[in-house]
Amino acid sequence: VVVMKAGERPRKKTTVFLQIYPRLPQDTAACCTLQVSPRATAATVIQNAGATLGLDMTRHYALLEVRQDGGAERMLGHSEIPVERVLLWPPAARNQHPQEEGYYFILQAQGSGGDLGSGTGGSEVYSSEEYDDLCSLSTLTEDTILAALRRRFYKHNIYTYASGILVAINPFKFLPIYNPKYVKMYNDQPLGKLSPHIFAVADVAFHTMLKKQENQCVVISGESGSGKTQSANFLIHCLTALSQKGYSSGVERTILGAGPVLEAFGNAKTAQNNHSSRFGKFIQVNYLESGVVRGAVVEKYFLEKCRLVFRDRSERNYHVFYYLLVGASKEEQREFSLLHPEDYAYLQQEDFNLEDAEDLRREFKRLHQAMEMVGFLVPTKKQIFSVLSAILYLGNVTYSQSEDGQGLEAGPADVLYTLSDLLEVKQELLVEALTKRKLMMANNTVVLHYTLDEAVTARDSMAKSLYSSLFDWIVLHINHALLNRRDMEEAVSCLSIGILDIFGFEDFQTNSFEQFCINYSIEKVHYYFHQHVFTLEQEEYQAEGISWSPIDYKDNLGCIHLISQKPTGLFHILDEESNLSQSTDNTLLEKFKQLHHDNPYFVPTAGMEPAFIIQHFTGTIKYQIKDFREKNTDHMRPEIVSLLRSSQRAFMRQLIGSDPVAFFRWGILRSTIHIIAVFKEAGRRRAAAVYLHLSVFSPHRKTKGSKRKQLIPKNLMNSRSLKHIVGLTRHDLTPRSLLHPHPRKQPSSISAQFQASLNQLLETVGRAEPFFIHCIRSNAEKKEMLFDDALVLQQMRYTGMLETVRIRKSGYNAKFTFKEFLEKFKVLLPKEATSAPKDIANLLQKMGLGQSTYQIGKTKVFLKERERQHLQDTLNKEVMRHIVILQRWFRACLIRRHFLCKKDAAIRIQRCWLAFRADNRCLAATVIQAAWRGSQERTDYLRMRNSVKKMQNFKLQEKPATPPQLPPKTQPKHQYQTQHQRNLERTKLRRRQHSEEHSPNRSPETGPEVNGQKAAQRNTETEKREGRGSPPPLNRPLSFPLDAKAGRYCMLHSHSSPLSRSPHSSPLTSPLWYPLGHMFSTYQVNIRQSCDLCGFYIWVMEKAYMCSACKLICHKKCLSKIITDCSTRCDDGEPGCLHFGVQVCVLTNKTYPIPMVLLMMLEHVEMNGLYTEGLYRKSGSASHARELHQLLEINPETATLENYSIHTVTGLVKRWFRELPDPLLTYRLYKDFLHAVELPEQSERLRAVYQKLDELPSANFQTLERLVFHLVRVAKEEQHNRMSANSLAIVFAPCILRSQDTTDPFLVMKDVSKTTTCVEILISEQFRRYTEKMKDITELEYAEALAVNQLKLKRRNTVRTVSLHRTPYCCHERPPGIRQTQIRLSHCQMVKRDSSLQRTRFTAPAFQWRRALHPSSRCLALSMMILGLCAAARPWKPISGSFRRTVLVLMLLPEANGTL
């Protein structure tokens, strides 16, 4: 709640109201309302509350936050900011905090030991202090860590830090903490400043990549069911949101769409997890150096193919099968021959019941949308679903003994028929491939019949290989959709962030070869984590020679050597035994026991049990040896490969192709040959039809729009792009030898492929800077918000969390070499300091850092994170101090220079004044003498005159008295005197008016408008007296005249703005306001979110409404439920008495769309100062500026700007913009404008900048358009004022676009060029549009003048023709040539009126941003010009109507504009 009285100027630092509810033993008020700053900490709020309530501040108090969800109470730390917690509350509880809403603060007493008092007697309450970072715990034990995690979990705080490592506990419940406002809240915030969140890790990784220009990676680990896949989705969602910069390029949508597709085909429901990933993936998002997404690559590892044909009876197959069977429409069911899920053998399970059928239908729709997002067309989706149906039908193939007993028969017949139809192969070849195999001998081929077990194995192998090939094909085409073509054309350095979502640790009742490989990959990742956290860290401490107590940890290198080290590793032995035809699973187990009986990590089983035990870092796990050899050599039979390659379906042949690039080239060649054959056949048919006089086409035409237009993706595949993608993901694809019908050499085993791809993955991750996320499963029953202490403690132990927290707490997170430390903190060091350790130690001691918080090694300086932040803050303050000193010195130089100039001017003025006063004295003496002499002469004259009058009277008295008679000419003397007096009054009135007009101190009421009205009134009265009448005056709006040179026509008191927010909206419509100041925009939800109004979910792929200002998210149906105003906007109000330092929205309303003071100053500059050199660059008088500022601030109507220099007025214009509390382009959009400028292409930058302008508030938007129009006027006169668009951008960029964060001066200075470029883009683009419009108007005026000249010439020639030939014309008829020319002239006048209207709308103060002149006006004018020229060239012959129509039609065509 911003505190501001009516008419009061808002302060730069606003205040906020907080309602505190005391829970204390003494009697106090029920609620305490405090007025604090937005950055006030909890300790400050407690002190203010204690002073208000009169509490004993010698006792300890705590501030608790109460949230509605579960009524949980959370104690705020002393350094936490309560206002930031309020921003996370619902909108209804932000302004005021009533207890009924469920979100408020409680003030409670705190015991001496740190526990809370209940408020009645000091007894202990439910919890102790909560820690965001486990390293902050005073006592580090398993119990304290477990208690801290449990306490945070039950308060819905599932994320906790362990220094830089994030610990995430899966609540098995969706929490509303992943909305876009959280992405904005954690944007560019250091790790640990806000509460722990996965978005904080994504943000730190993103900005670390940009700052250090190094690749980053996030490693997500944890057992199955701990939420790794969901965490990876949240990371991708946040990274794409950070990289968009307000302008989406399409790559982000493709990345978000790839997730649901891969999860549908690669995830399944298991006993531990309903959404378990059955493959590992590594998503690498590539960025430009500016932070814009360039592309991405998805790498998959070890798909669990055996799940397709065998799994535990309580588990499910892959998700996509259930999506297809439940969500398919009736038409799709008939097309793909789909059955019920329980009718397929591959989907059989115990108590088969799909309780989540509705969710499956919704997920199928989501899958459709996601496949379209990654570029899969409708025919492609049908091909994929057809292959899935064929795989399911393969499981329904059964075998029986043939009648002759020599072989097997496959059935049933309907299944084989449907299967052959889906695969588009011959049924005979299908049956032969499923029941027989061919053996290549030296001279001939032997056909052998399968046994029952061999036939079932071949059938399942075909299904697994087909599904694996389909999955590889999907990943390949997703990577092609994510490919940026510029990566193949130009060598531009790219940065990347990789997200590793590896398998979860698995321990089932029956563990086989798949679990063996998965657990081995977890061992490798765990070893990688230990290397970075323990081994490398402690080795660096020892190498630098600092004092360090080594921390012991459990190393798993021995287990890795047991499995993979040659020549005795289990994988190596398995490969050897798989190549021997006489070997069995039992012989393999015996060899394991024989070679590793004394290995501590290998535990043989007792007796003859076909199993062995391995001691993993998580514990002992038993593996069943059955089918190890078979699964290690699980390859597709050559007969199956030949069968599928004979399919009539090209998609099926593409799946089985050994080389995707070669198959693609062969497909192009086949298509070319087929097209040539079709064209030849069509040519022969057409020739025959012409010969027989028959129509080739059918008489029944298809109606337009009867067939839906097929959408074609933008980035079509070619051999070059496909080869590039295959080169990037070669290790993921099935080897060529496996898909060759006649392999020449033995293909590599599954274990060998898995080890190679895993080693390459770890090499990629090792080249990047890692971030770690540990995911923990809260309970084994998958219940919501249930914390199982035993299960969590077990996971903590085998991940080594206690040791991790210890080394993170006692270690040093910040490391600098001596050279790096000197370069970074050079400002804090003395001038003569070097990179010697002594100088660095003196600095650290001078700053008062403790000896235990830092250490200096041989080549590096080691600091704790808190001390590093203290150093950084001190550096920022010191830099700011130096900047202030430089500013003070520079201002002193300027003031000194101004003082000397003023001193010289004062001396000159004094000299001139003294000379002027001397001259005036001489002149005054002369005037006085002349007046005195004149007075004497006049006195003498009057004396003589009186004497003469007396003498005349005396003579008249001597004459006889006669009656006086008036002469006849003197009778109307009174009338003559009246007329004479009237003329005198008129003369006096004119003199008074002239003196008032030329008086410099006349009042503003006697302006030209008032004088004009009085003169008009006097003239009207005179006309009435003289008997003349006049029409009533027209009520027209006050306007300035049109300036032909500048093209300006400024309408005042106009409430309609020609600027439109939308390119398709009318230019005269008012801006569209949404409910209570919100500006909503729709977007497609990619991660399930919650509505801020109703609390229900917004499902994936649904449309959500989000306010671009306050980030409020809701359903469309909830828009009518909004009851709170937008927190970042303000309503229109009447302008107050202050005009500087006030928000723009306060100074504007419907009457004043633009602030009055700003409009006055801009119009004055445009009328008087456009030709002034150095406009806006030179500064005016400071005293005059203060005087004018005071006048404009108090009463701008009385200010006369003509009395001040133009530089004084321009200085006040810049000051008005600088003193805005929120700049014209707003703090909220500052970073978005900078990111828009960083885009590589000029068109993309321009589009992004204009896209951000639409998000400005209405008042800011209208003021900005008036300012840019003014700057375009200034830049147009560059040859006079020497102010180009770049110069104006340099001057105005700091005034209208500035950062709110001024703590780091380096960042502010770095952004100067970007802000200048942004403003220059606006000015240059509008200057270009202004020039184009004026050129069009000039062409129209030229066309009109040409038509007028043609009309005059036509009339002259007509008169001459009439006089020579004496052709009779009636009085009402005109010659044809004149009539045609008059028609053309009327058309030109109509076009001129249209152009005048366009010019008025374009050059008004609120100029148009997107309105373009309609081409018909220009075409019509030019066509009139052509017709006029033709008429002038042939005056004796009239222009035909057909020629005139042809010219008009040609001119109205868009293609004719360029060839005119």
TrEMBL record:
Residues 129-876 form the Myosin motor domain. Residues 955-1038 are annotated as: Disordered. Residues 961-970 have a biased composition (Pro residues). GO terms for cellular component: actin filament; cytoplasm; lamellipodium; myosin complex; ruffle. One of its GO terms (molecular function) is actin filament binding. Residues 1145-1330 form the Rho-GAP domain. Pfam families: C1_1, IQ, Myosin_head, RA, RhoGAP. Residues 14-112 form the Ras-associating domain. It is found in: Cytoplasm. Residues 758-780 are annotated as: Actin-binding. One of its GO terms (biological process) is intracellular signal transduction. The keyword Membrane does not apply. Belongs to the TRAFAC class myosin-kinesin ATPase superfamily. Myosin family. This is Myosin IXb.
